[in-house]
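Entry 14. Ran structure prediction on the chain below.
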Amino acid sequence: MLAVIVGLVFAVIGLWGMVAWWPDFIIVVKGSVPALLLIGGILAIVAGATAIRDSLESRASTKKEIEGKKE
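Output, structure tokens:
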């Protein structure tokens, strides 16, 4: 119950801060968007490279299993 009350208080203070300092808030958003896009792009590249590596490793292990069964 206390967490809900504290959350509501923080939400009201945050809303008041956005309204009171709207121009400053917009400047922060404008500066944050490119940085977040850069970080998101780097994470996507890493995730894609990891998926490709895992796929290649899986194919190699499957090929070894098939060759082992043929013998």
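The longest helix spans residues 22-70. Will compare against last week's run tomorrow.
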